[in-house]
Amino acid sequence: MLDGLINSLSFNAYVVVVILLSIAGIWAIISWSYDNLRSLVLIVKAVLAPYFLPQEHQTLAEKFGSWAVITGSTDGIGKQYARELASRGINVVLISRTKKKLVEVANEIEQEFHVKTKWIAADFSQGRDIYPRIEEELRGIPVGILELTDTFT
Ligand SMILES: NC(=O)c1ccc[n+]([C@@H]2O[C@H](COP(=O)([O-])OP(=O)(O)OC[C@H]3O[C@@H](n4cnc5c(N)ncnc54)[C@H](OP(=O)(O)O)[C@@H]3O)[C@@H](O)[C@H]2O)c1
């Protein structure tokens, strides 16, 4: 009878161990699959979503707000950024050194794209002293996009 009890107990322990190992194994498989297949699932989802899910189109202004600040914005890359953002209905704050160029580019953008502009003449190579004035000039403007075109060292 004692032998039967011992056999029954060890059988129950065996069953418990098997169940625990099974749970651990299933958990390990799920974790491994999640880690390894997650990126693939996300990529497939991102590729297929536009074809199957209704897209909620947001304009740049709806997404980031209606104002952008662009440094180095009177020539080259910065100017093209300013024009591109303005063409999408974003008001632009232009920051560069030369007042004459700033006025010209601001007028050009306002006439062409019918957005608001503001310009700030500042030389970023002059150190931190220029920042309080820029901060003051930007006060009250809800800036959602900041494009820093240069390091200006
Ligand atoms: N163009 C390219 O193919 C290219 C490629 C790779 C990297 N980059 C880099 O991208 C940056 C811009 O290039 P870009 O070709 O657009 O130059 P860019 O045509 O010479 O224009 C520079 C702009 O920055 C302003 N600026 C220059 N120094 C300034 C300063 N100290 N403080 C404030 N504003 C200043 C200039 O106006 P003011 O003179 O009135 O200040 C101008 O609006 C540079 O760092 C360049 O090295 C350019």
UniProtKB/TrEMBL annotation:
Species, as recorded: Phlebotomus papatasi
GO-annotated molecular function: oxidoreductase activity
Name the UniProt record assigns to this protein: Uncharacterized protein
Keyword Cell cycle belongs to the record: no
Classification via Gene3D superfamilies: NAD(P)-binding Rossmann-like Domain
Keywords annotated in UniProt: Oxidoreductase
Pfam families: adh_short (PF00106)
GO cellular component, as recorded: endoplasmic reticulum
InterPro entries for the chain: NAD(P)-bd_dom_sf, SDR_fam, VLCFA-Steroid_DH
